[in-house]
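Researcher: We plan to redesign the surface later, but first we want a full-length starting point. Tokens attached.
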């Protein structure tokens, strides 16, 4: 295979140079059990693009290459050579080496996960559990009848058929999960101190308490509006072999009590990291709710309590007299109190000094497992947290595990997020707790099962405005990491074609019928014109015309006889006459002869003209026709209206457009747009108020809606966007104008990281590490081990104060970062793989190794070969496949959009070991 010529694919994405030959790779990266990248970062794959592929397949290949390049790191350890400190002593002198410690600043790239996901709904359909179905059945809801552990359980379930009292009661929800939104990938929560692991599953939910959210046209906004009154973000934790969650205590006081223990066994003292809104946070405090007697089984969930999540900027285990540095300040551990009383709490005594000063700026005591806001005059307020302490009243040392937090959030059940700061007024918290070993007599909650953030004040998040295209709400208000945006439709006017009805009120139209008879269409009549390249078909078998008078017509325009003079609406020199409402059309696009489709004004009078541009089914009940009603009473029963159109006054004819507005399970569901003709000779008009203006009124047309989100049919204004995505442009006396969507449009709602294009970093300072110690960098898998550190030699004087020793050797060697800053004597860091490879290739040759083949079998020969034995099939729009066949990983869809969907699913499935 030859390498891809990027110019041939085109500049399909910004930064398409990611497809160039020199990229770096992380390792080991896997798809299932197949290794894609080695431990040293060497790539083992090629991405195959069809030589005749669409540009979107190039986009898909670029996304895969970009992902691999972003993960392109291997771990190396860099060590500085530190010279030995030596002392020479004589006589009564002594020489000792002291102060062997180091402070490291570590910056880890990519600690924050970013991404985006767009859901596609139909205009007028509910955004609920199943999209594209225009349905309201029980399958569209997340009910409370399922076990709380079920994959289709309502996120607000208490496990016993009711809602958590602090949560929303939403049932009709759409779930965005880890396979759709990368930052919510399932996460393994590790407690290194307890050698325990837990699973964290994240989901985002959109909907409402009844029937679900929706997108529909709203006249007051003159636009489409998203209605999603309830938004939720949920985290659910499970144990290594149970569905209980994260325990308060990692060691029980008996076989079932995990709610009380000393600091050593508390999860909150173990620096356990969870993923929250795409970033890594440490559990800094856990407080279960009081025992209300409800948790009598392990299946029940109870609300209450609080949890605190934090980010560290500096941490370290300090001996008495040691300190953490933040800018020009030193936070010194003066001592650890011996404690008093039955609780026997041992607070850390901390003083804060300015650089070079000997007097403290402030002094405070901080209990273990708690955070104190320490105000330092002239510097601001710092969050100082103590995990554990040891008072040293026996033979042990006096020490404290201390951290300075850059941020801390309080998640308190049935309260706003971080209620003390009052900056998340529209996002509430619901916590769920379980009880390990629950019985009728042992009911105390001791495991954190779920965290839910939810808002039912979306209007307030929008500033009390309608949620129109382009507007977004934050998830959450602070810190804003994600946002939900109503992106509008996936089409614009370039995907709509003109359809116009123009009335001639004075001059008759002469045509040649069957190439012989000369006929006049008496004014008024309407001329109907569609877009260039699309033709009308008047051979519909649905038209109930007089037997023997139906003649085929096929052209890009046609005429409707609107004169109300009975059979004299069309008069021919042969003596033949045709009724009002008849359609006149050429027999073919290149013909000069016209045919007539006769409308029977005495019986079930209507004439259909097929137009598959608005629906391939070409029927009034499924879409794709223009219908001319002549008998108004019959029109009433056909349209299924509750009001007799014959009673509205003035109306002589009705003209309706039936356009397909369905897809998926709602295929061939039409919306009908109807307007009337008030026949009054030369002043006949399309635009008027009927007696009943709920049916026809000036500047409006009538809609029979397809989707359940519209609770009633009725008139719609100029500018209306239909459920297909078409536009009703304008109506006046002599014209009616539409722009018809060339396909069913999707209403798009996007969940995305606020700064998706940025690779954010997580910076932390590790202080006072001793030689041989290892420390984990919060928010990443990076660990720093101190192999050798600087040392200070101290000489004791001899007799009469005479120095008898000297310090020699290099005691100052250390590693520097790009800024020239000291990062310590050794550092585990991510470095790019330095080899090169043609990562993206065409399907016009052969290649060995593992191949990621992008695009369907029609545009990619390698995909076609992989599926030749029927291993997979792509039969219809919406079909995607992400699977491995031999040495080929197939990433493909039925349409270009489906291939992009398959690409997102493939990327979400990748894992590193």
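Model: Full-length starting sequence:
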């Amino acid at each position: 295979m030859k390498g891809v010529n990027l110019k041939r694919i085109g500049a399909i994405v910004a930064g398409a140079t990611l497809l160039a030959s020199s990229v770096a790779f992380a390792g080991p990266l896997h798809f299932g059990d197949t290794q894609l990248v080695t431990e040293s970062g060497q790539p083992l794959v090629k991405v195959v693009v069809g030589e005749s592929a669409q540009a979107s397949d190039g986009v898909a290949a670029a996304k895969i290459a970009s992902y691999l390049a972003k993960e392109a790191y291997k771990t190396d350890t860099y060590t500085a050579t530190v010279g030995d400190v030596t002392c020479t002593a004589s006589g009564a002198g002594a020489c000792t080496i002291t102060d062997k410690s180091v402070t490291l600043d570590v910056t880890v790239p990519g600690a924050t996960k970013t991404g985006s996901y767009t859901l596609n709904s139909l205009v007028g359909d509910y955004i609920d559990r199943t999209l594209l179905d225009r349905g309201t059945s029980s399958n569209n809801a997340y009910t409370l009848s399922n076990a709380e552990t079920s994959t289709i359980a309502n996120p607000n379930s208490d496990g016993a058929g009711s809602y958590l009292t602090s949560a929303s009661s939403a049932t009709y929800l759409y779930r965005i999960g880890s396979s759709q939104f990368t930052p919510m990938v399932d996460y393994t929560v590790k407690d290194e101190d307890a050698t325990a692991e837990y699973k964290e599953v994240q989901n985002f939910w959109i909907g409402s308490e009844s029937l679900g959210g929706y997108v529909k046209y709203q006249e007051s906004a003159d636009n489409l509006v998203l209605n999603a009154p309830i938004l939720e973000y949920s985290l659910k934790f499970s144990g290594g072999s149970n569905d209980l969650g994260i325990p308060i205590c990692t060691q029980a006081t008996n076989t079932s009590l995990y709610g009380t223990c000393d600091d050593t066994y508390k999860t909150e003292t173990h620096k356990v990291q969870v993923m929250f809104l795409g970033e890594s946070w440490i559990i800094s405090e856990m407080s279960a709710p009081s025992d209300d007697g409800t948790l009598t089984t392990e299946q029940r969930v109870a609300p209450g309590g609080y949890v605190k999540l934090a980010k560290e900027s500096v941490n370290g285990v300090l001996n008495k007299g040691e300190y953490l540095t933040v800018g020009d300040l030193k936070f010194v551990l003066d001592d650890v109190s011996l404690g008093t009383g039955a609780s026997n709490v041992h607070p850390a005594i901390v003083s804060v000094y300015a650089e070079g000063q000997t007097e403290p700026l402030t002094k405070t005591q901080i209990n273990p497992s708690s955070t104190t806001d320490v105000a330092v005059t002239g510097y601001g307020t710092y969050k100082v947290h103590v995990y554990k302490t040891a008072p040293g009243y026996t033979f042990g040392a006096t020490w404290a595990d201390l951290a300075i937090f850059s941020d801390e959030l309080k998640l308190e059940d049935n309260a706003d997020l971080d209620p003390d700061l009052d900056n998340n007024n529209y996002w509430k918290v619901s916590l769920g707790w379980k009880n390990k070993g629950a019985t009728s007599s042992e009911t105390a909650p001791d495991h954190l099962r779920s965290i839910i953030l939810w808002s039912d004040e979306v209007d307030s998040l929008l500033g009390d405005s309608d949620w129109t295209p382009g507007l977004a709400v934050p998830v959450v208000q602070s810190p804003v990491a994600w946002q939900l945006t109503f992106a509008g439709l996936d089409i614009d006017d370039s995907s709509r074609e003109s359809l116009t009805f123009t009335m001639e009120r004075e001059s008759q139209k002469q045509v040649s019928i069957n190439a012989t008879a000369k006929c006049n269409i008496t004014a008024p009549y309407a001329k109907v014109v569609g877009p260039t390249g699309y033709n009308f078909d008047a051979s519909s078998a649905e038209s109930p015309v007089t037997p023997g008078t139906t003649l085929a017509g096929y052209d890009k325009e046609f005429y409707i006889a609107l004169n109300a003079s009975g059979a004299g609406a069309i008069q021919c020199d042969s003596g033949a006459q045709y009724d009002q409402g008849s359609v006149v059309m050429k027999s073919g696009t290149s013909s000069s002869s016209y045919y007539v489709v006769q409308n029977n004004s005495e019986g079930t009078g209507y004439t259909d003209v097929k137009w598959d541009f608005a629906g391939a089914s070409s029927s009034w009940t499924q879409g794709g026709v223009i219908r001319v009603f002549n008998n108004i009473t019959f029109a009433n029963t056909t349209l299924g209206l509750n009001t007799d159109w014959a009673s509205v006054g003035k109306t002589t004819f009705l003209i309706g457009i039936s356009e397909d507005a369905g897809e998926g399970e709602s295929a061939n569901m039409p919306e009908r747009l109807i307007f009337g003709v008030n026949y009054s000779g030369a002043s006949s008009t399309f635009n008027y108020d009927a007696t009943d203006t709920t049916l026809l009124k000036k500047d409006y047309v009538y809609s029979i809606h397809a989707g359940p989100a519209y609770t009633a049919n009725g008139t719609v204004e100029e500018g209306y966007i239909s459920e297909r995505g078409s536009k009703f442009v304008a109506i006046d006396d002599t014209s009616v104008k539409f722009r018809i969507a060339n396909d069913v449009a999707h209403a798009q709602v996007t969940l995305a990281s606020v700064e998706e294009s940025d690779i954010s970093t997580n910076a932390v300072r590790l202080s006072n590490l001793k030689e041989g110690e290892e420390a984990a960098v919060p928010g990443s898998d990076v660990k720093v081990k101190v192999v050798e550190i600087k040392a200070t030699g101290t000489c004791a004087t001899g007799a009469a104060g005479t120095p008898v020793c000297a310090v020699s050797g290099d005691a100052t060697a250390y590693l520097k970062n790009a800024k020239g800053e000291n990062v310590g004597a050794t550092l585990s860091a991510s470095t790019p793989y330095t080899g090169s490879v043609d990562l993206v290739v065409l399907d016009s040759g052969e290649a060995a190794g593992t191949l990621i083949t992008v695009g369907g079998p029609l545009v990619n020969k390698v995909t076609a070969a992989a599926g030749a034995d029927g291993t997979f099939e792509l039969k219809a729009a919406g079909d995607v496949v992400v699977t491995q066949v031999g040495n080929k990983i197939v990433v493909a869809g039925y349409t270009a959009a489906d291939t992009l969907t398959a690409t997102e699913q493939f990327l979400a499935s990748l894992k590193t070991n």
